[in-house]
Specification:
2 domains; two-stranded antiparallel ribbon; 2 helices; 5 strands; globular
Length: about 80
């Protein structure tokens, strides 16, 4: 893989912060797009069996990310909102 990219996720604690790092074998703008555009995030975010059914993203200062993951087996829903 280019640039030493692996499928390894590195986690560490720095003071009161949890830092997660992973190198992707993809152009930086494409990775940013996958994390910041709803149509892309809805294709991969969440665990198996819990697809995103709602994804509204506004990452501007003061904006909100609102989402819903729905369990395919039990009909349960999990709503989240981050600002």
């Amino acid at each position: 893989m280019a640039n030493g990219a692996t499928n390894q996720l590195v986690s560490k604690v720095e003071g009161r912060e949890l830092v997660l790092e992973r190198i992707f074998d993809a152009p930086r703008p494409l990775v940013f797009e996958a994390f910041t555009e709803a149509e892309h995030l809805m294709r991969w975010f969440g665990t198996d069996g819990w697809p995103l059914t709602v994804c509204n993203i506004d990452f501007r200062p003061g904006g909100v990310w609102h989402y819903c993951m729905k369990c395919m087996d039990e009909g349960q829903e999990y709503f989240g909102q981050e600002s």
